[in-house]
Amino acid sequence: MNFEYLQSFYMTVKYNSISKAAAVLHLTQPGLSMQLKNLEKEFGAKLLLRSNKGVKLTEEGKVVYNYADTILSIKGNIERDLKTLQQDRPKLIIGSCKSVGEYALPCSIYTFKKVNKEVDISMEALNSTKVIEKLCDHSINIGIIQSDSKEDNIAIKHIASDELILVGNTDRDKNQITIEELKRLPLILREIGSNSRYLVEKMLQENGTRIEDLNVIYSLNSPEAIKSSICAGKGFAFLPKLIVQKELKRGSLQNIEVDNLNISFNYNIAFRENYVFTKYEQMFVDFITSSKRGFC
């Protein structure tokens, strides 16, 4: 069996698009299509039905897809274990949503590293959608995300609860507003595709308001950049309470309550359902999900 063809098939189904899968796999669309045809030829069965809405699994395709998920995960485990044997030091690679990765997680990693000095740890801060993508393509084995995953093969474990709150600088006298007043504020939002933006859109919709009704002055892909803009008096933003606690205590930022708008969510460890953690991965997961430890 050609693992490259199987991986291409798996990614095509996950993204429901040959063009998107080709981009992720760094292949041309004709090249990916040829690999899919070769896999169908190898199995002697039609696996995918293509249309302008994407791809759909045939009954034979469903069987192959279910096995592909397991086979690729096992292959990843084998490669990981072989690399570990060939290396002097164990490695821990973590992908994290930015609201944790840029703030609380570095402290937790530092604490974990103090006890486990033999482990090389690397962490990449992304939005939650990108973290899930990296888990699905086996680039990472541990992710930290906001809220739940929409992917069927991704499991989660709860770490902590948080909420998105509207914050601005302290020049404002009023600390409670209506949704109608919210529409007139100059807002800075996270980028499209981020979970924070999704949560804001969802809560607004539940209150009969669209994101287009807001006065969005620009979007940024960094919570730190947004926080800096707000502290400089350049707008308002919905940010996780976790990352503005210090500024709220110091009085450099102000929490502004919006009537009937409560945006709570969880931080979760995310991982592939059938993935078996290495010794140090399991130790880190246990450490970060412990009620007595968690984030610093």
What does this structure look like?
This protein is of the alpha/beta class. The protein has three domains: 3-84, Winged helix-like DNA-binding domain superfamily/Winged helix DNA-binding domain (Arc Repressor Mutant, subunit A, Orthogonal Bundle), CATH 1.10.10.10; 89-160 and 266-289, D-Maltodextrin-Binding Protein, domain 2 (3-Layer(aba) Sandwich); 162-264, D-Maltodextrin-Binding Protein, domain 2 (3-Layer(aba) Sandwich). The chain has twelve helices and twelve strands. The strands form three sheets. Strands 3, 4, 5, 6, 7, 10, 11 and 12 form an eight-stranded mixed sheet that branches. Strands 1-2 form a two-stranded antiparallel ribbon. The longest helix is centred in the N-terminal third of the chain and has 28 residues, at 59-86. The protein is globular and about 70 Å long. The model has no long low-confidence stretch (mean pLDDT 89). It comes from Clostridium bovifaecis. One of its GO terms (molecular function) is DNA-binding transcription factor activity. This is LysR family transcriptional regulator. It holds the Pfam family LysR_substrate.
Poorly predicted sequence stretches spanning 5 or more consecutive residues: none
Indicate the multimeric state.
single chain
Cα(first) to Cα(last) distance is 47 Å
Binned strand content: 25-35%
Count helical runs: 12
- Number of strand segments: 12
